[in-house]
Amino acid sequence: QVQLQESGPGLVKPSQSLSLICSVSDGSITTNYYYWQWIRQPPGKGLEWMGTITYSGITYYSPSLKNRTSISRDTSKNHITLELSSVTPEDTAVYYCARRSSLLGYAMDYWGKGTLVTVSS
User: Distance (Å, rounded) from C-alpha 100 to C-alpha 60?
Assistant: First the structure.
């Protein structure tokens, strides 16, 4: 069974950059049909899709975050990286990585447990 685990700093200062890693086990990030997402949920708010990197390395970003977001991958380590620049307290959220499968109509079939990132001085 595929497992996803997010990791990174729990506290980031305003104007700095946030970097998170999603480590994937028991499944390759380069396997066809799978799309790897970053999604976040601010306190008391709904889920927000941030971006996707496909099995072939193509990236897609939310228009509202595109200028500050970068998603990349390390195939040798089988992990996905999220970088978010110029953070503000509004970027405080639980950050999740998840897998979407085209074999399941692009439904999300696996999620990480999420990691809380607080932006504060």
Answer: 13
**Any idea how long the chain is?**
121
3-state DSSP call for residue 52? strand
Among the listed residues 43, 83, 77, 32, the one whose alpha carbon sits nearest the alpha carbon of residue 61? 83
Please give the single-letter amino acid code of residue 46: G
Q: Note down pLDDT in tens along the chain; length 121 residues.
A: 999 999 999 999 999 999 999 999 999 999 999 999 999 999 999 999 999 999 999 999 999 999 999 999 999 999 999 999 999 999 999 999 999 998 888 888 999 999 999 999 9
